[in-house]
Amino acid sequence: MAEGPTIQELMSGFFIEICISLILYGITVAQTYIYYLNYGHEDTRFLRGVVACVMVLETAHTVFTIHMTYFYLITDFGQVGAIGHIIWSAGACVTSGMVIVAFAQGFYVMRIYMLSKRNIALTVLIGFMLLLRISFGLATSALTYRLGTWSVFRAKVGPLFTLSTGLGLSAAVDLLIALTLMYYLRRGRSGFKETDHLIHSLIAYAVNTGAITMLVSITIVLTFVFLKESLLFAGLVQLSSKLYANSFLGTLNARQILRKKINTLNSTELSDRRHIEIFQETSKVVDHDDSMHDISNKSHQIDTPAEEHDVEDGLSGKYPPL
């Protein structure tokens, strides 16, 4: 007669992932502090409110994660049968995580809408896929309450379908967002070395953040399907929401770095303390006194995608998102 899984097999990977997720939560707190320190008086109320909601949701998600871990490793320590029970906080983690994903990926969808010059068809496509992803995620959360035990949850077709489809859609949305941002950014290359280097940095950031979250989504599905005697997948679910939150906040906070790079570009390409203003369609070299400057009696314009938007676009203020 085959023996059941040991506590070490069930919980070792899960425990390590929870420890990592707590570290990521600390980074989220630090990033939120940096955001309000640098942009608290510059961005719109809407964007500041979104950041506050993400921070509150991340805190709630972390509390649920700690409760779930405490239940399995302290309250029912040594009881393999009790670990097989799905505690209510497991479903709460999934629900709060889905809302965080909605905020983070929704923000990137809005960036694409602005960068693509309000391409409604593309925005609706990605937005619809995101909506489906959130729906499947919430359905997975509901099934954790209905089925009650991990063995039943992993044996049924319903959870496998909702979880794999939801995470597959999540990976697809991440891929589409990264490819779309890369496409529009590459279209904006001007031929100037410094400007193109800045655009390449933006492309690298977009691709890297999308690749990380996409790989985590795929790994969750694989561990759910093939590692039946481990809660490794559950720990990865907790990591996923933390990655999305930090990706969102990192994008907002990176604007200051982008601004410094633009100022560096000023000092290397221009003189007389001129600066570059990046608008939605083109960038023009202007003087600090707001008058146009003629370089060799010719206007100098750099075609580049505008990832920076005005206050009116509803996303940002003085230092808009990348």
TrEMBL record:
DUF6534 domain segment(s): 170-256
Coiled coil: none
InterPro entries: DUF6534
This protein's record includes keyword Chaperone: no
Pfam families membership: DUF6534
UniProt-annotated stretches for the region Disordered: 290-322
This protein's UniProt keywords: Membrane, Transmembrane, Transmembrane helix
Keyword Membrane appears in the UniProt entry: yes
Transmembrane feature ranges: 14-37, 49-74, 86-108, 120-140, 160-185, 197-225
Record field: compositional bias (Basic and acidic residues): 290-301
Protein name: DUF6534 domain-containing protein
Organism in which the protein naturally occurs: Cerrena zonata
